[in-house]
Amino acid sequence: MAKTMGRWGVGLIFAPMSGIILTLFITLHYAFFTDFNFILPRNISQMFGIFFVVLGLVFYIASSIQLHGQFTKRKLITNGFYSFSRNPIYSSWILFIIPGSALIIDSVLLLLAPVLLYIMFRFLVVREEEYLEREYGDEYLEYKKRTGRIMPKLF
After folding, report:
1. How many domains does the chain have?
2. Residue 136 CA, distance from chain mean position
3. What is the pLDDT along the chain (155 residues), one digit of tens a residue?
4. How many C-alpha atoms does 154 have within 13 Å on its Cβ side?
5. Which of 39, 46, 119, 155 has most Cβ atoms within 10 angstroms of its Cβ?
6. Distance between CA atoms of residues 144 and 133, nearest Å
7. Interatomic CA distance for residues 75 and 53, integer angstroms
8. Count of CB atoms within 10 A of residue 6's CB?
């Protein structure tokens, strides 16, 4: 168990593993599944895809700026995008950027990648959560109760 955690958390493991998974899925798509298209016309699915990717990039960049701006202050971030998700940087990839990319390249196969990324995320994020519980105690536990890992808690 790590006594400290850098600003990238488990992202240093998540990012390269994600890259490998995405490369594999995109390669398989272009090798075997290029004729398997979405139900929507290609130009419509691409417009939705661009919208999702841009939205995801906005979330990713804004969350990253917020995290890196606050990291040196050693305070738990619970506002901004972090008020909706405890992990908005990972959320932006899993919920927006990868599905949007699947729509852009018209790959049903690539839509499976977020499922694998989420499973990988669930295993990796435990290390971050254990660290945050030790570092921030009850403040983090309360934040954890009201804020979802990936998506906002509705109830």
Report:
1. 1
2. 23
3. 446 666 566 666 777 888 888 888 888 888 887 776 666 788 888 999 999 999 999 999 999 888 887 777 778 888 888 889 988 988 999 999 999 998 888 888 888 888 988 888 888 888 888 888 888 899 989 999 999 888 887 75
4. 1
5. 46
6. 9
7. 30
8. 10
In a domain, 83, yes or no: yes
CA-wise closest residue to 84 among 40, 31, 127, 143 = 143
CATH of the domain at 23: 1.20.120.1630
Q: What angle do CA 79, 8, 115 make, to 5 degrees?
A: 85
145 is written with which tokens?
């109760």
Give burial (CB, 10 Å; 0-12/13-18/19+) of 52: buried
Print the domain residue range for 34. Answer: 11-146
Residues 6+ apart with CB under 8 A from 69: none
Q: Sign of the C-alpha dihedral, residues 61, 64, 66, 72?
A: negative
Residue 6 domain flag: no
